Amino acid sequence: MMLRQLWKRATALVVGRGTGAVAAAIALVAAVALGGTVSGMSVAEARTTGWGAGTWSCSGKPVATGNVITDHDSAGCGGYGSWYQQPAKDGIWTCSGSPVVAGYVITGHMVAGCDGAGAWRHNTARVGLWTCPGSPVPPGFRSTLYNAGACDGLGGWVLARA
After folding, report:
1. Which of 21, 64, 78, 114 is the most buried (most CB within 10 A)?
2. Which residues make Cβ contacts (< 8 Å) with residue 79, sequence separation at least 6?
3. 20-68 pLDDT, tens per residue?
4. Region for residue 5 given its phi and psi (left: phi exceeds 0; alpha: psi -120 to 50; beta: otherwise)
């Protein structure tokens, strides 16, 4: 190819894709051409935490003690999916399948939460709180009074002292 055609293609790449993408592509080609190896991180490892004190982990990895799952990235970990884990706190929305940390109960549900996986609200257990079906009942508490409209229409029970 003539130098002029090469220049036109390189210019079109920079304009169409941006300088960062072109620089990354050039670095990749140079590494391979020079006999080096290319090693990359999974999407889960590469993403920054951004909004909390948590970390991304690949699907199938255990959730750290005291943490809950609060977000999902279906493209993470090479397309296998990744989950954002962060410490539990009062009022946090978690993805379906997230563990319920000791001392917490499930108090709300959103079908479309967590990128379509469904989400559950976790609160610190206290007297008078409405809990959802499947919520643990922490030691020192018991379930009383049923209301079919509680927990966003799933039904729920009020926590009372044991």
Report:
1. 114
2. none
3. 334 433 433 333 333 333 333 333 343 444 456 799 999 889 999 999 9
4. alpha
